[in-house]
Structure formats: C-alpha cells, structure tokens
Write a structure and sequence with these properties.
- The chain is built from one helix and ten strands, in the order ββββββββαββ.
- By secondary structure, it is mainly β.
- It has one domain (43-212): Immunoglobulin-like (Sandwich), CATH 2.60.40.
- A five-stranded antiparallel sheet has the order 5-3-2-1-8, with no helix packed on it.
- It comes from Diplocarpon rosae.
- GO terms for molecular function: metal ion binding.
- Keywords: Signal.
- InterPro entries: SOD-like_Cu/Zn_dom_sf.
C-alpha cells in the first residue's frame, strides 16, 4: 500500500481540511480543487481489493470485495470511473461531503459526490472532473491507493491503483464482471440508519467513505 486514504480516495491522502459551507466555501489552506482539462487519454488504471480486511482480518464476513477501473474522458476533461463493490458494511457512516459544491471536497473524496449506495452488490459508473491521469500533479491517482473507511476514519480495506492497459474508450464495465442487480438492498443500521439521508461513500455515497490517498 502506498504510504500516505481515498483522504478514492488515503487516511492518506494528504488529508485536506473538511469542506465548509460559507458564502465563499473553500476546502482549506490549499483552496478549492480545480477541474483537470488536460488528462492523457487511453490509459486504464485498476485497483482490486485484497482478500483480508485492514483492521479486522479475522472478520467472519470477509473483506469488502470489488474494484475500481478508471480512464480519462475522451476530451481529456476529468476521469471516468467504473466501480463495483459487494459484501459492504451496513453501518459506520456517514462521511461528510457537500455534493452541491464538489470543488470544496477533498480531491480524492469520492464520498458523497456521486450518489448513494443503495444495494449490495453495488455497481456504478460516473465521471469526476477533479481526478487526473496526468502524472506529476496532485490530482494524479495512478500511483495512489483508494481506501474504504468508516466515518471515524478507521480503515476497512484499501488497494493500489496500477496501470493495466491503454485504450481509446471510457470504462463501462469492471474487470471482474457485473453482479446481479436484483439483489435486495442492504439496510443501513446504527449511525448510518440515523443519518441515511447524508450517508456517504467516494466517488459515491454510502455507509462508509471512499477516498484516494493523495
């Protein structure tokens, strides 16, 4: 694992200050994130979760399973992500992120920007304007990790991104295939149930947080 939590998203990532809702909201000392418009097109980065949990390797339920596949959009603006997760925790959220002001969220914070996780397995595709496939800048995630964590920042699991291939299309499916989308949604429990309206994940929203370690 690269040293440094997705803040998808590392409690690595250099952790940025929490987004603030003011008349002129800013992220913190580094200011708001900016949309990346010159991403190299064609490179595909993939991160696959390991078998064991980070903080509880003896968990009888086993680790969260899944992967993230990402590549720059055809116009070089932002990055398209294909996400698949299953065996998700049912409590432990939310992770705060103001989806109406994505520029004020941590660059690698996929928690809350792109909708709620409503079922297990969970599959989604979305575009994030602040991530980058351009090496050498802070928003580049190809040499980072993504982390799934609880709201208190306890790490559940993480995986390194690696360059897998080069192509000319955006990802529409994940390397491990698609799960049965008719699975009954997993209900939130505990803190997640109380705050179901604001529960968040990274690149997504859910009972846990997902971030890039930048």
């Amino acid at each position: 694992m690269h040293p440094s939590i997705l803040a998808v998203v590392a409690a690595a990532m250099l952790t940025l200050a929490s987004a603030q809702s003011t008349t002129e909201p800013i992220t913190g000392v580094r200011g708001n994130a900016t949309i990346v418009v010159n991403n190299p097109v064609g490179k595909v980065y993939v991160a696959v979760l390991p078998e064991q949990e980070w903080n509880n390797p003896q968990d009888p339920r086993g680790n969260v399973k899944g992967s993230i596949s990402a590549t720059a959009n055809p116009d070089g603006i932002g990055v398209s992500f294909a996400v698949k997760f299953e065996n998700l925790p049912t409590s432990g959220g939310p992770f705060p992120c103001d989806a109406s002001l994505p520029q004020t969220c941590q660059t690698g914070d996929l928690s809350g920007k792109h909708g709620k996780i409503t079922q297990d397995p969970f599959v989604a595709s979305y575009s994030d304007g602040f991530a980058s496939t351009l090496e050498g800048i802070g928003a580049f995630f190809g040499n980072r990790s993504f982390v799934i964590h609880f709201a208190n920042k306890t790490r559940i699991t993480c995986a390194n991104f690696a360059l897998e291939a080069t192509n000319t299309s955006t990802p529409t499916t994940l390397p491990t295939g698609s799960p049965n989308t008719t699975t009954t949604p997993v209900p939130f429990t505990g803190a997640a149930a109380v705050n179901a309206g604001t529960v968040s994940l990274t690149f997504l929203t859910s009972a846990f947080g997902l971030l890039f370690m930048l």
